[in-house]
Here is the input.
Amino acid sequence: MIKINEHFLKLQTSYLFSTIARRVNEFQQQHPDTEIIKMGIGDATRALPAACVAAFHAAVDEMAADATFRGYGPEQGYPFLREKIAENDYHGRNVDISPDEIFISDGAKCDTGNFQEILATDIVFAVPDPVYPVYVDTNVMAGRTGSFENGRYQNIVYLECTKKTHFIPDLPETPVDLIYLCFPNNPTGATISKADLAKWVDYARENRALILFDAAYEAFIKDETLPHSIYEIDGAREVAVEFRSFSKTAGFTGTRCAFTVVPKDCNAYDSMGNRQSLHALWNRRHSTKFNGVSYPVQRSAEAIYSHAGKQQVAEIIDYYMKNAALIRREMDALGRDCVGGENSPYIWIDAGGDSWSLFDSLLNNAGVVCTPGAGFGTCGNQYIRLSAFNSYENVQNAMTRIKTALK
Ligand code: PLP
Here is the structure.
């Protein structure tokens, strides 16, 4: 008899986006003339940078001729892209990461979700609350948690990120082996200073723990004192894996390209307490289960690092950050407590009550869709998330409508 992995039965159906869609549809049916503005989505809206499009076209043309055609590429990614990443994203910031420590993939979602696979199932892991749900659900699937009770899974150490903690997790009170961190954060938009991140690196070194650091939004950092990479912290190479993505940086959400950095001196331990190289394990896992990102996509991603590509990416980021600044300004003016929007495309806003109530109020009275914080964990119950991924005109309209509705 074929049997299922019963850990999947513990997963909570993600009601968040289906409930949002249902409520939006109901509203639209009742108000067919209202143009709804969607401020909840975390998907890029600006076109690919012109340099990426040109490189994409050129690579497709190469694929069209026998002489330049490429079949399977290296599973870890083409050296031309890995070298550009190492040089620009790391050496450019005085961070020591070599090209062969970089694994190109088709998304940070897959990588942040899959990495736990090379770790033991009986480890204790910690996630921030609120959290990007992929970290939690993939560990539930792997059997690292108990059942879901009162809004939380058993056997997870939840690190509460609240106004009191400045939306940065405090070190855990009970020992943990694996820690997920995400800065700039989704959903809160909060950032972490080098000094606060150093506390986590020190914790991991002292406790032989591992940090999975999701830096998918690092390109939105404006404050030059903030770390773009966890490897800007001394000792992080030994205890941290970093995930990056071109999705939000250069509009690759539909094109798909990202990368994971696993330093060669980053170790975990076998049951005898012997050190094992995570680089070697991840290389084995990646090359067994993944056959590389397509050549044209990698050429397109490489163009991000050209002179023109850098300028065009900076323009895209500035565009979203202008949206973010407007949202932040208007929310501040309304007297709403909020975080984010200064070094990230998300603004996390105190709902002044239940997050679904404010969601309904904004939908019904302003025709604006937000994301209720409840979908990201119990600490999100009193918050909503607004996203800067939109046209400036839409954001202006949405702010005018919200001001009228909430005043
Ligand atoms: N990590 C975080 C924190 C995200 O918010 C997202 C996307 O929303 C991802 C990873 C996924 O990125 P990718 O498009 O590279 O899969």
Observations:
- The radius of gyration is 22 Å.
- The first strand starts at residue 37 and ends at 38.
- The chain has two domains: 6-47+308-406, 53-306.
- Residues 75 and 292 are 4 Å apart (CA to CA).
